[in-house]
Write a structure and sequence with these properties.
The chain is of the alpha+beta class and 139 residues long. Helices cover 32% and strands 22% of the residues. The strands form 2 sheets. The chain has a 3-stranded antiparallel sheet. It has a 3-stranded mixed sheet with strand order 5-4-6, with no helix packed on it.
């Protein structure tokens, strides 16, 4: 039996493919904006909240997804590029939060410049969010 693209993508990040992990990955691939745990709960109404949360946590721990804190008050999750190492500052990019539709978008082509922090400050990750109205809401 041939592996699906999602199963291969999971395994490339050393994640054991399960039915839920594969379904969540497929769902996230289809989305144009980052998703929240509530979005997953709405879409997978028969799935347990804890299972969905653990799936997202596994994706984060293995660099398959990254977490975004925007003005919505809920963490959002977006898939990383296949060559992403989730290392600071190499994989930092701009996120855009639409205050009208509450969607959050990754702009991986817009890199965040590195900052010269004071001595002994050791950054692990960074989050850069611009708030405004997306192209659909501004039209």
């Amino acid at each position: 039996m041939e592996k699906s693209d999602s199963e291969q993508r999971l395994q490339s990040r050393s994640i054991q493919p399960t039915a839920v992990r594969t379904m969540v990955l497929d769902y996230m691939i289809e989305q144009k904006a980052a998703v929240s745990l509530a979005d997953l709960e709405d879409h997978f109404s028969r799935s347990d909240r804890t299972t969905l949360y653990r799936t997202l946590k596994t994706f984060l721990e293995h660099g398959l997804a990254h977490q975004i804190h925007d003005e919505s008050g809920s963490a959002k999750y977006a898939l990383c590029a296949e060559n992403c190492t989730c290392s600071y500052p190499d994989d930092l990019h701009v996120h855009f939060y639409c205050s009208s539709c509450q969607n959050t978008f990754c702009f991986t082509e817009l890199q965040i410049p590195s900052f010269n922090l004071p001595p002994k400050f050791q950054p692990d990750h960074g989050n850069f969010v611009i708030t405004g109205r997306c192209a659909n809401c501004a039209a």
